[in-house]
Amino acid sequence: MFDYATFSILLYFALLIFIGVYAMKKSTSDNGEYLLGGRNVSAKVTALSAGASDMSGWMLMGLPGAAYVSGLGSIWLAVGLVLGAYVNYHIVAPKLRVFTELADDALTIPEFFSKRFALEKGSVRLIASIVIIVFFTVYTASGLVAGGKLFESAFNIDYTIGIVATVSIVVIYTVLGGFLAVSLSDFIQGVIMLIALIAVPMVTFSNFDAKAASNFTQSMSFDFGNVELLAAISLMTWGLGYFGQPHIIVRFMAIDSHENLAKARKIGLSWMTISIIGALVTGLVGASFIANSEQSVSDPETIFIFLSQFLFHPFVAGWLLAAILAAIMSTISSQLLVSSSSLVEDIYKSYAKRQPSSNELLMISRVCVLVVAVVASFIALDSNSSVLNLVSNAWAGFGAAFGPLVIFSLWWKKLTHSGAVAGVVVGSLTVLLWAYVPLLENGETLSVYFYELLPGFVASSLAIVLVSLNTQQPDQQAIKWFDATNAKLQEA
Q1: Which residues on neighbouring strands pair with residue 41, listed in sequence order?
Q2: Quick one: pLDDT at residue 1?
């Protein structure tokens, strides 16, 4: 019997490889084009690329699963993310795009941190690079775990083979086409995700009988008075993480003009709002559908997979499952590229005894993508890995270590290099302490009461301010770039 779903997945893979080949011919003449697309990415591709690389498999598995279990209580997480993305577009995107180009064309986030103080080899650059390489390697592994489990549950394919299939396709188009391939594939993947998150809840609802429709309507009622304030705030603080996610904010650096960021913001936030609503409703209609049928799901996070396979033709179901792969792959490819850029630009190039050629840097960047992917794959071989906890901790770690520093770098002229180093170190350590050290009497960590991002963000901000006020001010060249950035934005 012809397997329509597998055929759909193979078509999707072929499309990604085609994008990689196209991007390789279009924009990989040097490392600047390979890592940032030559700063010539359009507004619509920037918007959907940032959104798709952000959401990962969480959008189609984690959030529907949360809504399936807790109903509309999970809305606070969605609200926090939308607000965080909105503020990020306003206070980070324009200044970051302009400053990184003025400051000797900084290509990476660690390089931007160092150039903010007119330093080529500032300590903050090396520390930030190490944080990115270590955390993104593990973060990438979490995506591969999700990919392996998807192949295992949806296609009855061995978990390890699922990991190999996922990482192989991602590596091929990322190695071939670099940032442009990643951005273009993210655009396509963002469209697929959007269509899937509209189609699945709509078709599910259309299959409701009167009883199921009534149950669904009741599940949509939400008593704000019964919401635990601390829990709601804890969920909303996820939005703070946006300011420090390298694989997201690097998109702002690559757009063709800072003047097009307003257009990108409208497209990106519209996509994000519709997608998050679709994910929430998928979980809610899925819960009602299961409650009023003889079907069952063992894992709430697989409700999207179940509905896709149960209600749709196998060929269509294949494309809907490709939406999950799209979410997973878009994030993995972005993380591989950012990790590679830090290895090459912030470590190899900065500390090489001689100035490497452009072709050499380009070749090494491609090799580093492959190396990080291989290491992440070995980590992912443990099928018992906790994807959600890993992603949660990494999001908090990046948000606390880099988020305050990004904001202060762009908005506070008195920020010093010592203050920047203190912010990264204190933010990272606070998150690790909060999430992993059993400080409570029962042996639990403080994260059981409150998400570790907020205390990490606050501690990092305080460290930046206090240390900066008591250390030497930045070089005059850095101040000139800071003022030139503000002047250029005021002209727009």
Answers
A1: 255
A2: 46
